[in-house]
UniProtKB/TrEMBL annotation:
Domain annotation UDP-N-acetylglucosamine 2-epimerase: ranges: 23-366
Alphabetical list of Pfam families matching this protein: Epimerase_2 (PF02350)
Native species: Amycolatopsis sulphurea
Identification of the protein by name: UDP-N-acetylglucosamine 2-epimerase (non-hydrolyzing)
UniProt keyword Isomerase, yes or no: yes
CDD domains from the UniProt entry: GTB_UDP-GlcNAc_2-Epimerase
Length: 387
């Protein structure tokens, strides 16, 4: 058996790696090993549980005081070094653009363990936005041995940067696999506020607007403008109910609660468990978000998205007519939301441009090939699995 370490420290990494772990389970000779970096304690476990998966190993990292990237990464590096020497995986998979992904890629690279980068090749080409993620993913691209790209455009970006074609596989985004897996289970709402909103939509013709915003570049003024826009949307549209699952970051939470706690028809909750988030995405008439993952998930249900960012490394939904980049200009958000709520602006009835639900199986087959384990049946399996 050959161990493949999957490293996660945040919610989106857990969601996007969970289906890869499931796919690796089905490959003879490969064994996924889920390691939690400790970056966001609690979030990884909560997300994985929805896929009937548990963490196999935790890093022993010192408690954080300053909250800086330097403190976070310098705390993880020795623990990652120890874990990778102990488990001796044949490959380490890192996902996206987090501090965990960077620290994991560096450590594996230094130990001579091949780095597999899932969701490789996303770019805004602006190191300041998103910060520090744009720099992080560019750095990982320089040392990865296998680049699993979510789209042909992302693969083209990597080739333009000099990454050899044979090191890149276009797999789609595993978040689409995740959202389809969870939606198919159709679990009833766990969060009571969501259950009530579902009744309101079904029985009273209400319209749900799902809002999430937590990214670093949104903190402070941009988030304040988004919250003003939310208040105006509620004022202007008496049938609208807003659901805002607030990120646990204490500053973000405090700002959201202060601005919205007294507004009727606005419900601020704890982060939703993933199946509830998927239910809300499916039910919503409109999504306002700065989240990468949510932008990628919403097109599965044809739910229109207003992206609360000035640039996006995920242009596919905008190009496909499922999302609009509005930034955090209050008037622009309110006007665009009005068009969606009145039905003037609809998401194009396109397939989700981020994937077809088979990204994990393609990734597992590419990892097998990287490790020299590909057997002739792999190509046939892939053909059968992906139609
Ligand atoms: N998510 C969730 N519960 C929530 C909000 C988001 O399960 O209350 C999921 C969401 O569906 C997506 C992932 O978390 O799969 C996105 O994470 P986040 O917005 O934290 O990060 P980003 O995608 O911006 O990196």
């Amino acid at each position: 058996m050959v161990d493949v370490m999957l490293l996660a420290g945040t919610r989106p990494e857990a969601v996007k790696l969970a289906t890869l772990a499931q796919a690796l389970d089905t490959r003879p000779g490969l064994r996924p090993l889920f390691v939690h970096s400790g970056q966001h304690p609690g979030m990884v476990e909560q997300a994985l549980a929805q896929f009937d998966r548990a963490v196999d190993g935790w890093l022993e990292v010192p408690p954080r005081r300053s909250g800086t990237q330097a403190e976070l990464i310098s705390g993880m590096l020795p623990a990652l070094d120890e874990a990778m020497r102990r488990y001796a995986p044949s490959a380490v998979v890192v996902q996206g653009d987090t501090a965990t992904a960077l620290a994991g890629a560096l450590t594996a690279f230094w130990l001579g363990i091949p780095v597999v980068h899932l969701e490789a090749g996303l770019r805004t080409h602006d190191l300041a936005s998103p910060f520090p993620e744009e720099g992080t993913r560019q750095m990982i691209s320089r040392i990865a041995a296998l680049h699993l790209s979510p789209s042909p455009a992302a693969a083209a970006t990597l080739r333009a940067e000099g990454v050899p074609t044979e090191r890149i596989t276009v797999v789609g985004n595993t978040v689409v696999d995740a959202v389809l897996t969870i939606a198919a289970r159709d679990l009833p709402a766990r969060e009571s506020a969501l259950a009530l909103l579902e009744m309101g939509v079904a029985e009273a013709g209400e319209q749900l607007v799902l809002v999430t915003s937590h990214r670093r570049e949104s903190w402070g003024e941009p988030l304040a403008r988004t919250l003003t826009a939310v208040r105006r949307i509620v004022d202007l549209h008496p049938q609208v109910q807003v659901l805002f699952p607030a990120h646990p970051n204490p500053d973000v939470r405090a700002q959201v609660e202060t601005a919205l706690s007294d507004v009727s028809r606005v419900t601020v909750t704890e982060p939703l468990e993933y199946p509830d988030l998927v239910r809300a995405l499916r039910l919503a008439t409109l999504v306002l978000t700065d989240s990468g993952g949510v932008q990628e998930e919403a097109p599965t249900f044809g739910t229109p998205v207003l992206v609360l960012r000035d640039t996006t490394e995920r242009p596919e939904a905008v190009t496909a007519g499922c999302a609009w980049l509005v930034g955090t200009d209050v008037d622009l958000i309110v006007t665009a939301a009005g068009h969606v709520l009145s039905g003037d602006l609809r998401a194009a009835p396109a397939a989700n441009p981020y994937g077809d639900g088979y990204a994990a199986v393609r990734s597992a087959v590419a990892i097998e090939a990287l490790l020299g384990l590909a057997d002739p049946a792999s190509a046939a399996d892939l053909q059968t699995a992906t139609g």
